[in-house]
Amino acid sequence: MNGPDDTNDDSAGADLDDILRRLGRDATSTEQLLPLVYAELRDMADRLMLGEKADHTLQPTALVHEAFLRLTASRNVGEQGRLHFLKAAAVTMRRVLVDHARARRAAKRGGDWQRITLSGLDPARADDATDDIDLLRLDELLAELEELDPRQARIVELRFFGDLTGKEIAEVLDISRQTVVRELAMARAWLKRGLGA
Fold first, then answer.
1. Which of 26-35, 98-107, 184-193 has the lowest mean pLDDT?
2. For the chain, what are the domain ranges?
């Protein structure tokens, strides 16, 4: 039996899907979208920034805004609904962070590398700081992994950059949750080997 809040949740989800479908096609859709997805994007950015150095010049709010601007510039980013929009947001945030790291490295002539951890890929090790890695190297390895196994690369991207759960990743990629767990474990091992960790 549905309570009054259930109807509102369904209505809100339908409104979000409608706004996502109209994104880039009508001027009001962007203004309507931000309040509906901001909290999720901000949580995603906060989790991504946890592994960054304290003096990192890109703040989570700026990451959200830059990613949102890039996302809404695309006409078809929201056509398949909320989870696909979040998938696109994860990819976009990855690109923003990599672009930012490249710009900082270029400005400092190879100086401070932006450090992150692979612990985001393994929820059981979320507090483990021994997996520090270079974001630019991770991006290079993900590009290599995409050549070898595109699905594993997407799973890593959605888990690490999008912070989607195994269930959400399974839904986005239309595979079983067990496949997500297995592929993520293999991808994580491959990445650690590539990082020399």
1. 98-107
2. 4-195
